[in-house]
Design goal:
The chain is of the alpha+beta class and about 900 residues long. The chain has four domains: about 210 residues, Metalloenzyme, LuxS/M16 peptidase-like (Cytochrome Bc1 Complex, Chain A, domain 1), CATH 3.30.830.10; about 210 residues, Metalloenzyme, LuxS/M16 peptidase-like (Cytochrome Bc1 Complex, Chain A, domain 1, 2-Layer Sandwich), CATH 3.30.830.10; about 210 residues, 2-Layer Sandwich (Cytochrome Bc1 Complex, Chain A, domain 1); about 210 residues, Cytochrome Bc1 Complex, Chain A, domain 1 (2-Layer Sandwich). The chain is about 40% helix and about 20% strand. It holds the Pfam family Peptidase_M16_M. Keywords: Hydrolase, Metal-binding, Metalloprotease, Protease, Zinc. GO terms for molecular function: metal ion binding; metalloendopeptidase activity.
């Protein structure tokens, strides 16, 4: 098995007697053990009269087995032992996975293995869980992704299994003619859940022999029904569905044009990756690229290439363009330009040096591959196990074995007008059909003879250019020699008025990569909602200006980001470190030469308005979260305030604003990874020159937070446009001590699975039900939330209060071993070692921001967690969370379904946000 030289894990591939394919991974340093099992059965296999069956089955397997019959027991066991679990159903796969503290892995696998040998499917659980599936369907009924997906299903070959409804609801999963859906569920399970179409990956610090022992113990009894995967024998599209223009009406303000080309499956060519080569050229964003030229012409904002659905007999290749309002009026010209670029690729773009360039980038990514979390690792390896040859399971994603011009030309032949479907998603079109399930208005019309002529007889567009050789490809790949002190935490190596420089050379992860953070705090940038919006506008304009020239650096394995926050803006660079100084120089040049053109300003402003308006169409629970942080953090206004302010801003206001912002700066920089001290100091000089830092006396920006101590219950009602109701309760700690962090974190850990089991699985109040740990500006916070298609906010509020009232009793009923196991599981999660360079950089950077300058906050919290007794936790629940006396903020929305129901009458409504925010400091 081909592995990376930077990968110290051991692997073993085997096939059990029942034909289950298995990959075992020994990782001596794994903080948790993890397992993933995928079965090559998905919604393509749903019976035509039982659509959503595969998805329903995925839900049901978690709800009790012969050996472990209690509903919710699996999740409780995983959570108590510091783990997490989930599953998903796709077109041709259903995948289950979990991770857990290593000492509990064997027992976790015993429970997990039972899913595939002895599930109960008890009647009561069947009835309740189809309600959960129905809630999941209803939750996304106004989700444009689902709505557009349904139109795609209705406009491909209706005989293809992709056309089926994948989620399921109460009508597809109902009991019929005296026969329970349970009977069909059992028949589906026994027919399809067969070991010969399954793959299993186990990973942990356990030895390979021990892991193999587990597979024999817990998975060798999965029956082999010899189901052998059936190939799909009908095409994804026929001539009937090609050369069609599909128009779809979205709920959100979208303008997207998609060119879709169907072709046979290319899975067998994974070692060569021909479509990656073509997507690389079509999706290029550098000078002269298809995206750059269409942007210059004011027609598009973004372009992506290479997406699309795929299956065992088809692959769809899409080119997606987000349009400007002007672009929406010129879709024919945009398509013409795309075909001109395809013609350019056919004539001049098939070169082995281009293939070699992409291959070398992938080789470096593989060679210096860093670890991912155990759960993420098993999740992608189990898919590779089913799709790649055994020797390529680790390497398959990175392989580019050889340039094959014949194959590229064969695939390019599919990029033709006769094989194209063109989709325009935009509001205000003309429609004559409505899609099932999601009520999406759409229309389908054939291409006109004029369009076919215009797009077929193409002459080259002289402005379009293929990318030049990449100057950012790195040459020095050995990490720099370690300097003295590299094992220490980050050091403050420069502390000047208005400028601080932190540095750490990474001694543990020896990869030639670096991460640089530059936090630019400016009190002027956040002194009003108007200035906050101007800051965000400038960030987007700068990112737009940088994109074209910095794109080759991204291709070469470097990335950058610029983002606004409560104090100003932060610039971040990451990836291979050798050419990071050049990339920083390029970005700083753009900072200096800020020439905002009217067209660019208009497009960015329109995009931001659209994104913020669209966010106000998000599901209610997302809007409640946004409004919660907007209420509590004055420097983080909610979307309606941002929209109202942005509408009034003009381009001539920006230059004086930027000057004023740069006149009062405080900069914190952290240079980390494959960087030595002298180079970090040199980078600091570059930054100080660029930002004109000379003995400035400005401190960091204040980040105010509203404190809700002694407030009792405060309520805030939001107005959304959705059928479901939603509620969110937030509790806040006034103190930021390690003890308070420990209490709030443990409370969430203890509550989460019980809350989910009680209010979702048992009471079926909705699909989105949960608790969360929400620290704001270092202050610990606890949230409980529900989005419900079946109950109004007053009912949901009572249900949550009943839960919190009873929770002290739940804690009393835990035996001492369970109490200690819960604490140990949480401590294992918190103290989990950093997986890779990026995770460690993030942790250090958060510590710097939180003034944890000894980098030991985590240890202090763990010490307090160890000391917490059950009496402490019961006292916290009774004193802080108990409904009648609690200081809390309750955000809610009454869904359209519940407009006539009992109103929520608890607490004191927040009448004025301005007065409420006077408590912020």
């Amino acid at each position: 098995m081909h592995t990376s030289p930077n990968d110290h894990k051991q692997y073993r591939y085997l096939t059990l007697a029942n034909e289950l394919r298995v990959l075992l991974v020994h990782d001596a340093e794994a903080p948790r053990s993890a397992a993933a099992l995928s079965v090559e059965i998905g919604h393509f296999n749903d019976p035509i009269d039982r659509q959503g069956m595969a998805h329903f089955l995925e839900h049901m397997l978690f709800l009790g087995t012969e050996k472990y019959p209690r509903v919710g027991e699996f999740q409780t066991f995983i959570n108590r032992n510091g783990g997490s679990n989930n599953a998903w159903t796709g077109t041709e796969n259903t995948t289950f996975f979990f991770e857990i503290s290593p000492h509990a892995f064997e027992e976790g696998l015993d429970r997990f293995g039972q899913f595939f040998t002895a599930p109960l499917f008890n009647e009561d659980a069947v009835d309740k869980e189809r309600q959960a599936v129905d809630s999941e369907y209803k939750l996304k009924i106004k989700d444009d992704v689902r709505r557009l997906y349904q139109v795609q299903k209705e406009t491909i070959n209706p005989a293809h299994p992709f056309a089926k409804f994948s989620v399921g609801d109460l009508t597809t999963l109902d009991d019929r003619n005296g026969q329970s859906v349970r009977d069909d569920l059992l028949a589906f399970y026994h027919q399809h859940y067969s070991a010969d179409v399954m793959g299993l990956v186990l990973l942990g610090p356990q030895s390979l022999d021990e892991l193999e022992h587990y597979t024999q113990d817990f998975f060798s009894k999965i029956p082999n029904a010899t189901t052998k995967k059936v190939a799909i024998d009908v095409p994804f599209v026929t001539e009937n569905e090609c050369q069609k223009f599909i128009q779809i009406e979205p709920i959100k303000e979208l303008r997207k044009l998609t060119l879709s080309f169907a072709m046979p499956s290319v899975d067998e060519h994974y070692q060569i990756k021909p479509l990656s080569y073509l997507a690389h050229l079509l999706g290029n964003e550098g000078s002269g690229s298809l995206m750059a030229i269409l942007k210059q012409r004011g027609l598009i904002n973004t372009l992506t290439a290479g997406g699309g659905v795929s299956g065992n007999n088809f692959r769809e290749f899409t080119i997606g363009l987000n349009l400007t309002p002007k672009g929406q009026q010129h879709t024919d010209e945009i398509v013409q330009c795309v075909f001109a670029f395809i013609a350019l690729i056919k004539q001049q773009g098939l070169n082995s040096w281009r293939y070699q360039e992409k291959k070398s980038v992938l080789e470096m990514a593989f060679r210096y591959q860093e670890k991912s979390r155990p759960l993420d690792t098993v999740s992608y390896l189990v898919m590779n196990l089913l799709h790649y040859n055994a020797e390529d399971i680790i390497y398959g994603d990175y392989m580019m074995e050889g340039y094959d011009q014949d194959l590229l030309e064969q695939l390019l032949a599919y990029f033709s007008v006769s094989n194209m479907r063109l989709t325009l998603v935009a509001q205000g079109g003309h429609y004559d059909r409505v899609a099932a399930w999601y009520d999406t208005p759409y229309s389908v019309t054939p291409f006109t003879p004029q369009q076919v002529e215009m797009w077929t007889n193409i002459s080259l567009d002289t402005e379009l250019l293929l990318p030049e050789p990449n100057i950012y490809l790195c040459e020095k790949f050995e990490p720099l020699a370690l300097e003295a002190g590299s094992e220490l935490p980050p050091q403050l190596i420069q502390d000047l008025p208005g400028f601080r420089l932190w540095h750490k050379q990474e001694h543990d992860f020896r990869v030639p990569k670096g991460i640089v953070y530059v936090a630019i705090d400016s009190p002027h940038a956040v002194s009003s909602t108007t200035n906050i919006v101007k800051t965000r506008l400038c960030v987007e304009l700068l990112l737009e200006a940088i994109n074209e020239s910095a794109y080759p650096a991204e291709i070469a394995g470097m990335s950058y980001n610029l983002y606004a926050h409560q104090g100003g803006v932060t610039l971040q660079l990451s990836g291979f470190s050798e050419k990071q100084p050049q990339l920083m120089q390029l970005i700083l040049e753009h900072f200096k030469n800020r020439n905002f053109t009217q067209q660019r300003f208009d497009n960015i402003k329109a995009q931001m308005l659209r994104n913020w308006r669209n966010a106000s169409e998000d599901k209610p629970i997302s809007q409640l979260f946004n409004q919660l942080t907007g209420l509590l953090q004055p420097n983080n206004p909610p979307y309606p305030h941002l929209i109202e302010t942005l509408e009034t801003i003009t381009i001539d206001q920006l230059p004086p604003f930027v000057e004023a912002m740069f006149a009062e700066l405080h900069i914190d920089t952290f240079v980390y990874g494959n960087w030595i001290k002298k180079d970090a100091l040199a980078l600091a000089e570059t930054l100080k020159d660029a930002f004109r830092v000379t003995d400035q006396l400005y401190g960091e920006s204040q980040r105010p937070l509203v404190h809700i101590e002694n407030s009792g219950t405060l309520t805030y009602e939001l107005d959304c446009n959705h059928e479901d109701s939603a509620i969110l309760m937030y509790y806040q700690s006034r103190q930021t001590t390690p003890k308070k962090i420990a209490i709030y974190t443990l409370a969430n850990h203890l509550m989460s699975t019980t809350f989910f089991h009680e209010l979702r699985t048992k009471q079926q109040l909705g699909y989105m039900v949960g608790t969360g740990n929400l620290p704001l500006n270092r202050h610990p916070g606890l949230i409980l939330y529900i989005q419900s298609p079946v109950a109004e906010p007053s009912y949901l509020s009572d249900a949550i209060d009943d839960f919190t009232n009873a929770f002290a009793l739940v804690l009393l009923e835990l035996n001492e071993a369970q109490w200690q196991a819960s604490k140990t599981g949480l401590i294992a999660q918190i103290s989990e070692p950093d997986t890779n360079l990026r995770a460690r950089a993030q942790r250090f950077w958060v510590s710097i921001g939180n003034k944890d300058e000894h980098f030991n906050q985590r240890q202090l919290v763990i010490e307090k967690l160890k000391q917490l007794s059950r009496a402490d936790m019961i006292k916290f629940i009774v004193d802080t969370v108990k409904p009648r006396t609690a200081n809390r903020l309750v955000m809610y929305y009454t869904g359209k379904t519940h407009q006539d129901s009992e109103p929520l009458t608890i607490g004191q409504p927040i009448e004025s946000i301005e007065i409420f925010q006077k408590n912020a400091y």
